[in-house]
Amino acid sequence: MAQLSTDTDMLNRQCDELDSLGTFLSKLREQLLAMSMDAKITRIKLEKFTELLDSKVIECDQYKDIAKQFNQVVLKIKKDVDETQANLFNESKEWYQIKQKLAMATAGGKVTLNVGGEKYQTSIETLTREKDTFFTALFSRQWGLEKDEEGCVFIDRNGKLFGIILEYLRTGRLLLPNSEDSALRQSLMIEAEFYHLKTLHYLLSGKKEKMMET
User: Fold this and answer.
1) What CATH code is carried by the domain that includes residue 165?
2) Which InterPro entries match (predicted)?
3) Range 138-166 burial, b when 16+ CB lie within 10 A, else e
């Protein structure tokens, strides 16, 4: 009987140990499942972060391309501006040299014009105030100037109208006896075309109202 009691106690202890082990294994299983779930969530978050990082890398590359293109545009604009400034400087320098040569064409740069019988005394500088006109071409070939018996440069145009044109060249302003006189303006436009005075022609065309009545 004593031996049977001992065996029973041993079996009971073993059963208790097995129950404890089962409880431990059950908790361990729950922990492993929780860890597996956390790992899955972590993996999903990591994948999303990787996708976001990849998209940012692509955006960064796109921004680099845009910045490169923008830099190329800026460099081209700078080059064009530099070339334009250089051309303007060269044209200005060339024009200044031409005007100096023209001013030396006559004593003191003065000249007397005989325009259709009307005599006008002015300066080469005044007549060549604008580029690429009849007068710059006229005085740049001084050896071919047509002069009358008094030594005046002869121009076979309307002498009365030339007085208005000369005043414009002197002052830069168009002064008309009557700005509403369309026939006068038309006649002056014809003269402006002949003398290649583009700004004067522009004013006379009525596109820019800067007329003044005297």
Assistant:
1) 3.30.710.10
2) BACURD1-3, BTB/POZ_dom, SKP1/BTB/POZ_sf, T1-type_BTB
3) bbeeeeeeeeeeeebbbbebbbebbebbb
Q: How does pLDDT run across 112-155, given as a tens digit for each residue?
A: 999 999 999 999 889 988 888 998 888 776 545 677 788 888 89
For residue 155, the cross-strand partners are 115
Phi/psi for 45 (5° steps) reads -60, -40
CA atoms within 13 Å, Cβ hemisphere of 22: 6
pLDDT tens-digit map of 9-36: 777 777 777 777 778 777 778 887 778 7
Q: How many beta carbons lie within 10 A of that of residue 185, not counting itself?
A: 20
Contact call for residues 169 and 126 (beta carbons, < 8 A):
yes
Note whether 154 and 170 are within 8 A (CB): no
Same domain, 145 and 171: yes
Does 1 fall in a domain? no
Domain hosting residue 47, numbered range: 40-103
Cα 50 to Cα 40, 53, 123, 182, 214: the distances in Å are 15, 5, 81, 79, 82
Residues 134 and 173 in one domain: yes
**Residue 93 lies inside a defined structural domain of this protein:** yes
Tell me, what DSSP letter sits at residue 150?
A: T
Rounded to an integer, what distance in angstroms lies between the CA atom of residue 189 and that of residue 185?
A: 6
How many domains in the chain? 2
12: Cα separation from own chain's centroid: 97
